[in-house]
Request: fold
Amino acid sequence: MSAFPEDDIPDFQVNNDSNEDDSDEEVINRFMFDVLIPNFCMRRERIPQNISRLSRNDYVGELLAGPDTRFYYNVRMNKPCFYALIEELLSRGVMSQDPRSRVSVIEKVIMFIRTVSMHHRQRDTMDRFQHSLETVNRSIHEVLNVLVSLALIFITHHNVSETPPQVLNVPRFYPYFEGAIGAKDGILIPAAVRADHQTAFRSRKGTISQNVLAICDFNLMFTYVYVGWEGSASDAHVLFNAIISDQHFPWLNEGKYYLVDAGFTNYTHFLAPYRQTRYHLNEFRSSGMEARTPAELFNHRHSSLRNAIERCFGVLKSRFPMLKWGMPSYTMDRQVKIVIACCVLHNFIRQFGMEDEIFEGNSEYNDNDEFIFSQSAQANQQSIEDQCLICDALANAM
Reply:
């Protein structure tokens, strides 16, 4: 098909009678100057792309003025928590409203949260907010960098010298785990990397992932996040590297420790369960699968308390599905930043939006081990205490 209308194509058939003296070069020059150059210089008609009646701040205004359930579905937090987040960003001076900008701070934050929480491409966000792709990209990365800059403020320990109330007020945990400050584990986040890097990032599950090391307290708040490691690296190797290379690694006072699973070694400040002994909660839930030894009872209570980190990961991926399904359109550096930014938002929501339905569904201890040990109650408690002393001795000896 010709790129030019038929009526506009000049007749370049050469008449032997009149043009027999014309050289080939003259014919080519006529074609270039009469057809190619005018059509090349002709500006194409621009077709408007952003034609929605509900554009830019109109959509944001509708969300803010609309039902709370719709706002929560789109922004993944309730309105009071969102307003507290905007106030935090403005008061700290990390974001400000430029009067020359067509995009408000509120709109930028909502664009970022919708992108990571709805697993949207930036083109989907462009269509929803009726901005150019460049504006959407710039706004999202501005919010991303701002949240990462706040990581050391919001991802940190609080009151590490005191026994957490989640331990102190639960008889089956106190005084046996009075030194426990939090729980530690690793999580695989889907990653998009170049073909020549995929072998290193291929995890034990066969997926291309980055290995993220995280520590949380028993209030389901992250206190440390170490990101960017290849999926093929073991959790113990990532932890060792974090200890020796990260100056922000949260060391604890004497007598305090993190609960870890059997993939880690029992040493100072890390308390692991007994190996080759049932540990995971689902192994105790079936009828007839009650704990029959002090070691099993210790493992069950250890697993019940350490389950805080599993619930943390569950809340994080439920709120931000991009961490579950992957980030194929971002560089590895930005994929790492997105994980940190989501953890910052997770902690902020936990701190300022306590009545949050995602947390509410993951914040309760659903396992009760009062029935699972067949000896007397006094013997149970004494056995647990003995097992804790043994684990402490092992940790101090290593």
